[in-house]
Amino acid sequence: MADKEERLSVYIKNFSRLLREDTTTIEPYSKETERFYKFQELLADVFPHIVPLCEAEDFDGSMLLKWKGKPSGKKPALFMYHQDLIPVDPAQWSHAPFGAEVCDGKLWGRGTLDTKCGLFGVLQAADELTAEGFVPDRDIYFVSTRNEESSGFGADAISRALHERGIELDMTFDEGGFILYDPIGVADGTFAMVAVGEKVPLTVKFIARSPGGHAAMPKKNSPLARLAKMIAYIEDHDPFFSVISDTTAQMLRCFGPYMRRFGVVAKHPGLFAPVLKKVLPAVSSTAGALLKSTLAFTMSGASDASNAIPTEAWVIGNLRCAPHQGPEDCLAELKKICDRYGIEIECRVPKRGGNVADYKGEAFGLLKAAVMKAYPQVDDVVPYISNTASDSSAYSPYCRQCLGLNPFIISKEQMGTIHGIDENIDLDTIVPGVDCFRYLIESL
Ligand SMILES: [Zn+2]
Asked: Which of 37, 106, 237, 239 could lock onto 333 through a cystine, CB 3.0 to 4.6 A?
């Protein structure tokens, strides 16, 4: 292999070609596929050894590639990194969002972190390995959808198709956490955060109805008053219970030796569960959300006229269900409360999420080994449940080991640029990031 400097200059060139393509999500249910097909043609040009070698299948603009492995009897593995991007306002950026500028030791552009880094990294690694004559020990799939940031239809369609064809995936790898210094504000160390499960997000509509009438003759308990009482009740009486899950316990054990305070408590999460349930929400809302399902009220609507009592008023709640209290259980708790106020609930529960990968399982072990080999400075590889859902959750009902990690070191500031302004990645992490994918693929 070429030396590090040479590799970096090739990688910047290849990665930049991906970044210069505007693959923005247009709208939630966009039918526009043209820019994504163009991007996929580019992939074949940037990665000429691996992409044309794979069997390709199109799912309405989302891409499935199959890299045939040796007949070893191992079940296939799948890598997924979406190609769509969150819209940008170039006026707010200090570097052109699709310019792929190199400046201050960083590469700038929309998608450098979310998540063309993953797509570039895995295809670059596979391309090099193929050119060196490597054949994987099992079939490996690469998926890149065009609607992860919106409808999620691509992941739903591909996961279902594989399932219906009887293809049982052994493990999947997706975006998810990054490698961060002190990820949740409690531990002085560098940790690779691997999502081993995702909360299931639901949009819940709460509806209160009435016969309506003129606002000059109001009666008590109008639809808005009932909704207000329900919201206030839920704010004061959290309907969801906290659990120090096996995953959270392991996360705390990893952080324990590096914690400034509560280190002893963290080393024995089972023993100190009651303390931790109190302490973690006080540390930050991020830490608190690790423990339970959450509900945030985000939208509302009522009468069209200021002098008319609404016949129907509604609020939308963004519900995120933790594995220990899933969609059915959460909705049952909410229904109990709503019944008291004469409020109806509408919610479509998608077939997503479900499995939490075992951090003692094979996939986690292989990923951990690859990270530690590529990044000697990493203190530990830490499992967690993600508060946000990605394409991974579409595979979770069918696969027990769905993991999420972008194996690149980023700072807290860079974390804040995801879906925001001036997204960028350090040049220093690009070579070890590709190495991590190489080690992982070689070990599968
Ligand atoms: Zn993403």
From this structure: 239
12 with 85, same domain: the answer is yes
What is the tally of structural domains in the chain?
Answer: 2
Residues whose CB is under 5 A from ligand 1 (ion)? Answer: 114-115, 175
Structural domain that includes position 108: 4-197+355-443
State the distance from the centre of ligand 1 to the C-alpha of 247, rounded, in angstroms.
22
pLDDT in tens, 196-235: 999 999 999 999 999 999 999 889 999 999 999 999 999 9
> Is this model's pTM higher than 0.85 or not?
yes
Average pLDDT estimate for 44-65 = 98
Distance 82 CA to ligand 1 centre (A): 7
For residue 388, is pLDDT > 90?
A: no
Backbone dihedral angles phi then psi of residue 412, each to the nearest 5 degrees: -60, -35
Residues 383 and 274 in one domain: no
**To 10 degrees, the CA torsion angle through 106, 112, 117, 123?**
-100
Torsional sign, CA 440, 442, 443, 444: positive
Q: What is the CATH number of the domain that holds 377?
A: 3.40.630.10
Partners of 67 in beta bridges:
140
Rounded distance from Cα 86 to ligand 1 centre (Å)? 9
Residues 149 and 54 in one domain: yes
At 1, is the pLDDT very low, low, confident or very high (cuts 50, 70, 90)?
low
Distance 391 CA to ligand 1 centre (A): 8
